[in-house]
Amino acid sequence: MAASNKSIYSALAANLLISITKFIAGAFSNSAAMISEGIHSLVDTVNQILLLFGLRRSRKPADALRPFGYGKELYFYSFIVSILIFGLGGGISIYQGIIHIIEPEPLRNPTWNYVVLGLSVIFEGTSLVIAAKEFNLTRAGQTWWEAIKRSKDPSGFLVLFEDGAAVAGLLLVIICLFLGHHYEIPELDGIASVLVGSILIVVSLILARESRSLLMGEGIAPETQKKIIAIVEKNPAVIKAEQILSTYQSPEVVVLILIVAFQADLDTADINQAIDEIRADIKSEFKLVKFVIIQPEIFNETNKKFDPYSG
User: Fold this and answer.
1) Are 144 and 131 in contact (CB under 8 A)?
2) CATH number of 2-216
3) In terms of C-beta density within 10 A (0-12 exposed, 13-18 middle, 19 or more buried), how is residue 184 classed?
4) Which of 74, 193, 200, 220 is a Cys-bridge partner for 36, taking CB atoms 3.0 to 4.6 Å apart?
5) Would you state the torsion angle of the CA atoms of residues 125, 130, 132, 136, taken in this order, to the nearest 10 degrees?
6) What are the start-end ranges of the H helices in 30-143?
7) Is it the case that residue 131 has pLDDT exceeding 80?
8) Which intervals of the chain form a coiled coil (predicted)?
9) Which of 43-52, 229-238, 296-305 has the highest mean pLDDT?
10) Can you list the pairs that 238-243 forms with residues at least 24 positions away whose Cβ atoms lie under 8 Å?
11) How far is residue 203's CA from residue 196's CA, in Å, rounded to a whole number?
C-alpha cells in the first residue's frame, strides 16, 4: 500500500494546485470547459482525501465489533469516490456544457486558458506516470486490464483511472478551445465540457463496478486455491479438501474457510493437531491469509459420504 500512497499524494498535490488555477482562468475567459475542468480537479482532490482516509481507517486493528478488522473501509470509500466522480464530476460538467451549448457566450482572451491547460497537462501527466509506474509493479506479467480486474487494492487503479481521465479531458479541452477561437464557434466550449463529463461518467461506472465487487467480497484466484488444496491434502491425516471459501477483507487480509475430510480412525486430538499443522503451513506459504477456519469432516465407509465431525 505504500506505493499506492505515493501516487495518491502526488495526485492530491497536483489536483489541488490545478483546480485553483483552472477556476481563475475559467472566470477570466468565461469558459465553461475550464470551469468543468476546475470542477474535475476539485472532485479529484476530494477523492484523494477520501482514499487516504479510507486507507487509514482500513488499518485499524480488529476488535470485538469487527473481529476480521476494518479492511473493507477502503472498499467502501473507493465506492464513494466512484459515485462522486459520476455525480459531481460528470454530472455537473455535462450540465454546464449543455447550458453553454444552448446559450453560447463569446469567449474572452484564451491566453491564460492555454497557459493553465499546458501546465495542467504537465502536472497531471507526471501524476499519471507515477501512478502507472506504481501500478505496473503489481502486474506480475498480466495485461493492464487483467491486473485492474484482479487487483484487490482500489487505491492503485482509482488514481490511475482518475489521472488518465484528467489527461484525456485536458487534451479534449485544448483542441475544442483552439478550434472554438480559431473558427469562432463558441458552442465548442460547451461541447468540450460535455465530452469531459462523459469521460468522467464512463470512468466512474468502471470504478463503481470494480469497487462494488470488492465491497461484496472477492475470493482468492483459482490457481491459489489449487495450491492451498495441495497443501491441505499433503497432510497424512487428510483424505480430501472438500470445499474452500475465501474473501479479501482488505488488500492485505484474506479470510479462508476450509471443509476438510479427515481419516475416520483419528480421534479429536489427532484432528486438532492436523488442523494446527495445516493452518501453519498455509499461513507460512501465503502471507496475506491471516485467518484460517477449518471445518473437519469424517469419511463414512458405510454410505460413502462425508459427515460433519462432531467429536
Assistant:
1) no
2) 1.20.1510.10
3) exposed
4) 193
5) 160
6) 32-58, 73-84, 92-102, 111-136
7) yes
8) none
9) 229-238
10) 238/262, 238/263, 238/274, 238/278, 239/263, 239/299, 242/297, 242/306
11) 11
Distances in Å between the Cα of 153 and the Cα atoms of 5, 146, 286 are 11, 14, 17
What SS3 state is found at 262?
strand
Strand partners for 230: none
C-alpha cell read off for 142:
498480466
pLDDT mean over 258-262: 94
- The sheet carrying 305-308 orders its strands as 238-250, 253-262, 289-300, 305-308
**Cell 476450509 belongs to which residue?**
258
**Dihedrals φ, ψ of 237, to 5°?**
-80, -10
Burial 129-148 (b: 16+ CB within 10 A, else e): ebbeebbeebeeeeeeeebb
**Interacting residues of 111 by C-beta distance below 8 A, sequence separation 6+:** none
pTM of the entire predicted model? 0.79
Alpha carbons within 13 A on the beta-carbon side of 196: 37
Complete DSSP assignment for 119-144: HHHHHHHHHHHHHHHHHHTT-TT--H
CA gap 266, 203 in Å, rounded: 55
Residue range 222-308, CATH number: 3.30.70.1350
Residue 281's nearest CA partner among 263, 261, 259, 256 is: 256
Could you give the CA distance from residue 216 to residue 201 in angstroms, rounded to a whole number? 22
Domains of the chain, by residue range, sit at 2-216, 222-308
The predicted-structure confidence for 177-225, as pLDDT tens digits, reads as follows 899 888 888 899 889 889 988 998 999 999 999 999 999 889 999 999 9
Burial zone of 8 (CB within 10 Å; 0-12 exposed, 13-18 middle, 19+ buried):
buried
